[in-house]
Structure formats: structure tokens, C-alpha cells
Design goal:
- The protein has two domains: about 160 residues, P-loop containing nucleotide triphosphate hydrolases (Rossmann fold, 3-Layer(aba) Sandwich), CATH 3.40.50; about 110 residues, no CATH class.
- Helix content is about 55%, strand content about 10%.
- It is built from 15 helices and five strands.
- Strands 2-3-4-1-5 form a five-stranded parallel β-sheet, sandwiched between helices.
- It starts with 10 loop residues before the first helix and ends with a helix.
- Bound molecules: zinc ion.
Amino acid sequence: MRGLEALCGNGSVKRRLSAGRGLSHAYILAGPAGCGKRTLAAVLSQALVCSGPGEVPCGTCSDCRKAAAGIHPDILRAGADGKELTVARVRELRGDAYLLPNEAGRKVYLLENAQTMNNSAQNALLKILEDGPAYAAFLLLTDNAGALLPTVRSRCEGLSLSPVTPTEARDWLLRRFPDRPREEVLAAAGRCEGVLGRAVSWLEGDGQGEVQDAGARLAQLLLSGPEGVLLEACVGLEKWEREALGELLDETTRQLLRALTAGADPRRVTFLTGRLRQLRQALAYNVGAGHIAGWLCAGACPASPLSFTTETMTR
Ligand SMILES: [Zn+2]
């Protein structure tokens, strides 16, 4: 299969798709947000509708060009708004699947946030996966394949995307942003934890989005973990410049306070914002980012045996 270079890293997925066994009629593209699910879905849907000769997608036939422009009438999308994919919506798609394709040889249904389907919606989908017309193809995108019923999973080929290595991220981002200052691109590559979607949105935005993004994520991890991911995120903070780290701590505090109105445990929020205030003070005392990161992680767990006071931090 061609066009897979658009996806960074993920060699095993690329090898499987290039193995030349032809395309499956249903795939589950799983992996955390920003790992390239949409990029891969774009390549796959183009390959499915391509009418050119030879290896697909040819990139030049009218089907490929329409697919690339996002205007192919036989590529149908659902779930991109992040709202629940309801049973009514899935039944609508099922009805549509029995209408012959408009232009291509196949019809592609691209379902984002597939994990939002409840059991009835998934069972409705299962019916078309099992008995639908042969030209209908399904791409289910999800950050949680475990939320899909085993019956649905067994009908689809699973493609599991993962974060890329720092070297892969760097090389890919340098190619994607040739005009941006090298240091900026390298900094984003270093901080994105292998999740390129994050680095891309930072580099495409004005840089402000990065602090907001990272603050929201950190606040969420501090509130509900999982601890292993929080630990990784804290280790990642070592790469932040002092000034940006200060902004990040402030943003995290703002996000935690915002979480209160969304029903977060007030005692936990008070505890965490107190810790963040202490770290902010420590930062002003020239304590290094690495120490701040370590203290944040240790201090975030109430059961942590480490004493955690501004006094020990500034000593
Ligand atoms: Zn083509």
C-alpha cells in the first residue's frame, strides 16, 4: 500500500498494511489522541475508493483527488464532533450502506470516537459488519478499543497506533515544518511525548495552545491518574524552560479550579492547588525543572512518604 509515509513511526502497522493481502472491509484504528489515527484513516479511505491501476492509493485518479480534498461522496464520516455515536445514527448509516456507491467501487464509513457507541449502537453496527453489502468498508477510530464489544472487535482488523520515538518525532516534525526555527521544532518534538498531534497543534498555533494543552492534561492526570502516566508526564516536565514551566503550573492551577465546577473532589483540588503554589514559589527560588517535576509527582500522591514542604524544596 502506498501513502503510508504520511504516518510517522508505527512500522509494524505499516508493514502489515503493505504485506499485500488486500484491504479488509473493517478496521479498528486504536491509539491515544494525536497518534495519527486520522492520518492513517485518510490513507486507508483513499486506498479503498481509488480507481487507479496498480498499487493503491494511486494519488492521481479522480477518486483519490476527491478523497484527498475531503469531498469524495462515497467517504462518509460520523462521530467527529465528539458527541456520542447513537444507535439512531448507526441505523442511519446502515440504511445508507444499502444504497450503491455514487462514484467509487466502494463506500467507506469513517466512525470517529467509536468508543462512544453504547451496546445497542454497537450491536446495530455489528449487523452491517456481518451482513452488509460487500462494497461497504468501515474504519472505526478510537482511543479505547477496550470499550468495543468483543463481537465487534472480532469482525474488524485491529491496527494499534502508538506514540513515536523522540528521533522519529524530530525527523518527521522537521520535515513537516521546514520553515519554523529549528529550536522551536526540536523543543516541541522533545515535549510531545511521541504524540505528534500535540506537537503539530503547538507548532501550528502561536505557542499559547501548548501551555493550555499541557496544563489541561496535567490537571486531569493529577485528579484521576493513572499514576504511571502521571509519572511519565512529570518526567517530561524536566524538558521545560523555567519560564514556560511557571506558566504551566499556573495554567494547571486554573484547570484544576475549573474542574471543581465540573464536579471534581474539592478536597483533592485544594490539596493539589496548594502543592502547585508551593512549587511555583520553589521555582522562584531557582529550583531546577527536574526537581520541580520530581516533587510534583511525589507530592501528587497523598500517601507519598516524602515530606513535601517549601522548606525542603528550597534547602
Ligand atoms: Zn487513485
